[in-house]
Design goal:
The protein is α/β, with parallel strands linked by helices and 178 residues long. The chain has a single domain, classed as Rossmann fold. The protein is 54% helix and 12% strand. The chain is built from seven helices and five strands, in the order βαβαβααβαβαα. Strands 3-2-1-4-5 form a five-stranded parallel beta sheet, sandwiched between helices. Strand 2, helix 2 and strand 3 form a beta-alpha-beta unit.
């Protein structure tokens, strides 16, 4: 089976990539993250993925679009900003997977214990049905710590918040307010 994996960042991709390869799947990463702000954070995550790609035979499709205005308008108007973000990125992943004749798509967001796991699964399955392509579900969270260690051993940049400007604010605001 050929799977297109939406990649939020290199540290989350390391264990997902290895797990899927070990299961015998053909794996290609897909970089599409207009949610990551500020721009220097976006570039740091992209450069970490490029570094990981350079380490071995790792295929990645890059959709290097950084449309701040469109993303923020969507976030501001959304009833749930995470739902909007997941929908945007998984829709693009599913469309690309279908266009490029993959058998399925998934996301590294399923690796993070900090994401809304059930929401991601439900959105992925819904988008898969809408686009007539299989959403591959696996709970990758059990490999999160292993992935962090491996990413650290490879000196890959590791972020400290989800990616959107709102999650960045929450991260620093908690430190100030307590």
């Amino acid at each position: 089976m050929k799977i297109l994996v939406h990649v939020c960042c290199a540290p989350c991709y390391v264990p997902v990539h290895k797990r899927l390869i070990d299961k015998g799947y053909g794996v290609t990463g897909f970089w599409y993250n207009p949610n990551i702000h500020p721009f220097m954070e976006y570039r740091a995550r992209l450069e970490a993925l490029l570094k990981y790609q350079g380490i071995g035979k790792i295929e990645i499709i890059y959709r290097d679009e950084y449309d701040l205005k469109e993303f923020l308008q969507g976030q501001i108007n959304a009833s749930d900003r995470c739902e909007f973000c997941y929908n945007q990125r998984l829709n693009e992943t599913a469309k690309t997977a279908k266009e490029k004749k993959f058998d399925a798509f998934t996301t590294t967001l399923l690796e993070s214990p900090f994401q809304k796991h059930d929401m991601i699964k439900n959105i992925g399955e819904k988008i898969g049905k809408e686009n007539k392509i299989r959403f591959y579900y696996e709970d990758f969270r059990k490999w999160h710590d292993q992935g962090k260690k491996e990413a650290s051993s490879l000196s890959l940049y590791r972020q400290r918040y989800c990616g959107c400007i709102f999650s960045e604010k929450e991260r620093f605001y908690r430190k100030i307010v307590g």
